[in-house]
Design goal:
There is one protein chain. By secondary structure, the protein is of the alpha/beta class. Helices cover about 50% and strands about 15% of the residues. Strands 4-6-5-7 form a four-stranded mixed sheet. It has a four-stranded mixed sheet with strand order 11-10-9-12, with no helix packed on it. A hairpin with a 5-residue loop joins β5 and β6. The radius of gyration is 27 Å and the shape is elongated. It comes from Dorea longicatena. Keywords: Membrane, Transmembrane, Transmembrane helix. This is Peptidase M56 domain-containing protein.
Amino acid sequence: MEISFGPFLTCFFAIMFLTIYLYIILYRARNVFAKNTKWLFLGILLIFIRLSVPVNFPFTYSVYSEKFLPRFTNPLCDNKIGNLSIYDCLLILWISVAVIKVLIFFYRKIRLGNYLKNFTQNSDHTDPLYQMLRKYIPAPIEIAIIPSRTSPAITGTLFPILVFPKNISLSEEEIQLICLHELKHYKNHDLWMKLFIELIVCIHWWNPFVYLLQKEYFLTLEIDNDNYLKKHIPDFDSVQYAELILKIAKNTLTDGSSDSLQMVDTINFTGTVTSELESRITFTLSTPDAPRRHSLFRSVIHTIILCGVLIITIFVVIEPSSPGPSSDTNGTFTLEDDNVCLLKVHNGYHLYVNGKYVGALDTIPDDFKNVTIYTRKEEIPHE
């Protein structure tokens, strides 16, 4: 396996496609939430895992761009900063920032866990709010009632904790809706999905589309749970539920202390982004679509699309390639010591004949031991 431009380019275009795809699911194909949601999300998660390993596997097939991509990639490989090419410098920068972001993420995750532990270990089981929450939250999930004006949330992949603000006035029916919503995240393993996506965002920090994809994906999870409550709660009041979303959002906005909690790796009942609140309320108040004759067909199409993207990201990569030399009338050229040279690049060598690029080599053959090796492309003598 080797790291090259191909996996980076493939990941970039795959994430861009998935961002557009999730947008279509959210705002065009609403019926997709009704069936096979877990399978759709599983397919996206598998694609995410593949995108977090941007290397060429031995079985990958390369699709070469002869003219367009080399215009951008060749200067990165040929120009050097000291002994390193610009590509090597960018690769070091990418890995360094990714490692730092992953470490910061886990530091904040551990810090949040230690903060919440103070409230789970010292919980007052006689507190009416605690008793009411425990009616709807099973014992394996701990409950942390905190003084901050934050949104109710669930966190912790291995040791789940329901986070609930203390200073908010809610009816028992509203508390039930919040608990069932967060409990559904736990049962759907959404916390694991969120963890994987957060790590992928840390790894692909350079790709602007990954942040858009993260936003759309998390919104998809929230709308999916909202729809679950609409279908499975008897006498569900959509207007009341929409008012509850706004109430929690307003309570969160009235106090900036929640920012200091660094609520990482949590799934909040509601956020504070206006566009996301509008989307959730719009879906909540909308009339459920009538069953469609082609709903099964559409689900199959979505599955095929995701499987296709997964197969492409695993087995196919887009690679920049410089064009080979022009063939003579016999389709051959002569290799002699005075017309052959090598250019050292990040992953091997480029072979030049009469100043023209011929191909790439991983190692130097015995026949080329005496051939001149250059480190800069401009040093290569031309025909």
